[in-house]
Amino acid sequence: MTKIPRIVHFVFGLKEQLEPFHLMHYLAIESCRQVIQPDKIFLYYHHLPYGEYWDMIRPELTLERVALSKKVEDTHYDETLVPSRYRYAHHADIVRLDVLLERGGIYADIDTLFLRPLPDYLFEKPFVIAREPHYKDELSGQLRPSLCNALMLSAPGASYVRRWRDRIASELNGSWSNHSCFLAHVLAEDYPDEVHVEPGTSFLGVPCSQAGLRAFLEGVGELDTSSSYSLHWWQHLWWEQQRTDFSTVHGGDLTLDHLRQGETPLCKLAQPFLPALELESLGTCPR
Fold this sequence. Notes:
Blueprint: E1 7-11, H1 23-35, E2 40-45, H2 52-57, E3 62-65, H3 70-74, H4 87-103, E4 105-108, E5 112-114, E6 127-136, E7 143-154, H5 159-171, H6 178-190, E8 196-198, H7 200-203, H8 210-218, E9 230-232, H9 256-261, H10 265-270
Parallel strand pairs: 1-2, 1-4, 2-3, 6-8
Antiparallel strand pairs: 4-7, 5-9, 6-7
Helix pairs in contact: 4-5, 5-6
């Protein structure tokens, strides 16, 4: 059996870049570099990032420009359910499968923080993904079982990934997860020998809920990451300033000073990976 190579893939810049590369995204890559110590880190983009944090992390990356999916571009979105401004995430759903199929390795969303090295036994599996709580299908209104594609490990040419890639276009229906996390669960049920499913605590860390995100971002309540190799901070649920249903914190709040001086779980977990360079402009984000 082909082992999973120790290379890492990130996808970013699939929509036009209107703000500098953020400190939090720098931390995703820097924590990966320090904790995983991969042989190579790839970043796939369509619109090249820019800014001081980008300039700092760019030398650690192998960059590859990717095309956008015509199928995703042509998909209709009901703006009241899944706004089309999130279309870039569905482009990324396809890119991540393509690169894992071709090269294998670890795929991680850019809203990931690595905490501990991944155990060696995972690299002996053909494909690894973590379970997430049942998720509501926007179109049907039903709760459906789901596997989270925010962090995955794959051998090159893994049959599970090939099946997923072959079906993804036909499952794109304008919902958030039908073609991605819901389909991942269906395939795992149909082909259990081709996939190893980890508990959500292994790769997600932060519960996908108001309580989980308030604990992580604001320090309200408890957050246990003792069994997590990485955590996923569910950026799309709180990053924009006007989005306050999960947390009052937004991306513009997360400056270098905030993370360096703060006492929340986010701040404490991020501090080992913060840049030492003192620049007044670092950490700012247009509001």
